[in-house]
Amino acid sequence: MSEMVDATSINDAAYAALRQQIISGELSPGAPLSERALCERLEVSRTPLREAIKILAREGLIEISPTRRAKVASVTLDEAANMLTLLAALEGLSGEQACQKVLGEDIAELEALQASMRHSYEQKDLATYFELNQAIHLKILAIADNQVLSEMFNNLNARLRHVRKRLTPTQGRWAQAVEEHEQMLVHLKKGEGKKLRALMEDHLRNKIDVFLATMLQQGIVSTQR
């Protein structure tokens, strides 16, 4: 039993480490994955690494060729646009469903996150702002308590997260985003599900063109496969 638990822990650790390197952008789209190099880099043997690669392939983060060669999944411009559009819809749905289940302690936690996020905005600390922004959206997703929705959201968010971290918003757009977050809390407190859904969808949809331009500029997407 102990050996089985240890093996599971090693597999989970290999999966988490490889996944993090992909979503952080450390391993870029299209990059070939050498088992030998990754084993040394992650300090694991080939068995847990191969298990991690299989799981990440199912999640769409890795592509495996007919000859069993693995690489970080590449994305075309059209695919990226479709993913962002779907992610916006999922964010909106999470907000609507969260309105039906939110508790007082959830509101208190979100208010604290929002206050910290506003402070990071005032300090022009973009990195901290981004992490707090993500924490707010993930908290709303958790309140919605929809496993299928969470799985779809987290998969798409993982594939796009490193791009979102690289965006440098204009001062006007940044200020607007902070105010939109304030309004999200207002709708959530009042249980205004439809209004929160529309706001959360627009919150991301209005940035899709900027996302795509950044992805093209940095070579994260291509116009064709």
Could you outline the blueprint of secondary structure elements for this entry?
Layout (H helix, E strand, L loop, with lengths): L1 H22 L11 H8 L3 H13 L3 E3 L5 E3 L2 E2 H23 L4 H19 L3 H19 L2 H20 L4 H20 L2 H13 L2 H10 L3 E2 L3
Parallel strand pairs: 3-4
Antiparallel strand pairs: 1-2
Helix pairs in contact: 1-3, 4-6, 4-7, 4-8, 4-9, 4-10, 5-6, 5-8, 6-7, 8-9
Pfam families: FCD, GntR
GO molecular function: DNA binding; DNA-binding transcription factor activity
InterPro entries: GntR_C (IPR011711), TF_FadR/GntR_C (IPR008920), Tscrpt_reg_HTH_GntR (IPR000524), WH-like_DNA-bd_sf (IPR036388), WH_DNA-bd_sf (IPR036390)
How would you describe what is shown here?
There is one protein chain. By secondary structure, the chain is mainly alpha-helical. The protein has two domains: 67 residues, Winged helix-like DNA-binding domain superfamily/Winged helix DNA-binding domain (Arc Repressor Mutant, subunit A); 147 residues, Four Helix Bundle (Hemerythrin (Met), subunit A) (Up-down Bundle), CATH 1.20.120. The protein is 74% helix and 4% strand. The chain contains ten helices and four strands; from the N terminus they run H-H-H-E-E-E-H-H-H-H-H-H-H-E. The strands form two sheets. The chain has a two-stranded antiparallel ribbon with strand order 1-2. A two-stranded parallel ribbon has the order 3-4. The longest helix is centred in the middle third of the chain and has 23 residues. It is globular, with a radius of gyration of 19 Å. The termini are far apart.
